Amino acid sequence: xxxxxTDDEELSVRIVxxxxxxxxxxxxxxxxxxxxxxxxxxxxxWGVDLTTGQGLGAALVGADAVVHCAxxxxxxxxxxxxxxxxxxxxxxxxxxxxxxxxxxxxxxDANPLPYYRAKVxxxxxxxxxxxxxxxxxxxxxxxxxxTIARMATIGRTRLDLDFSAQPVDVSWFARELVDxxxxxxxxxxxxxxxxxxxxxxxxxxxxxxxxxxxxxxxTRGLRxxxxxxxxxxxxxxxNLPGPDARIGGVGFSDWIAxxxxxxxx
Length: 265
Prior knowledge:
alpha/beta
């Protein structure tokens, strides 16, 4: 994507970032400002409620693009689905509709997990909107794989799930989203190439990387049977990127090596 960067304030791009206070959104905001453009964080902290539309109109005034990072895995129907519908409605009323860059998840359409189903419904609303929009799916973030790896380690026992991931560094993904926002808006709603990190690993691989990084005792693997539709979807590797995915950022092993080691409990 071409980046339109300039010191001329008149040519700066105004980008609204929903969920601008969150882990991904805050990095998008920082990247936009690093490039000399105007970032408008939009979340409840800043007086914007996606689920009701409160404050959306004011936040969108003069916006060239919107990077939609807001998400709630616990209550996805309200934030991810209803919030997206509210956002689409607000963008549609703009004199010049802003380019919406919509964040989604690789393989969400092949997994019955309620959060993933909500992501599919949100995607469908975006793609049916007729607005200039780019849906960008990413694999799991390193932070989530780190959490899964720690949950799978109980004392000296490691629960070996049939789950592989190709996680992406959230900072690199944020840069990709900003590149989309600064690029030429599409004529309608489209899906971009999936985004993923460079390293494919299992839960056991991730747990071992975490253990080695923190100098913990060796663990013994205990195979966990794959039961239920959700675990089967992960076992089928539905969460992995396709061959045309855009790959980049640091791998999980390099990422975990840069994290501060946690004290043993």
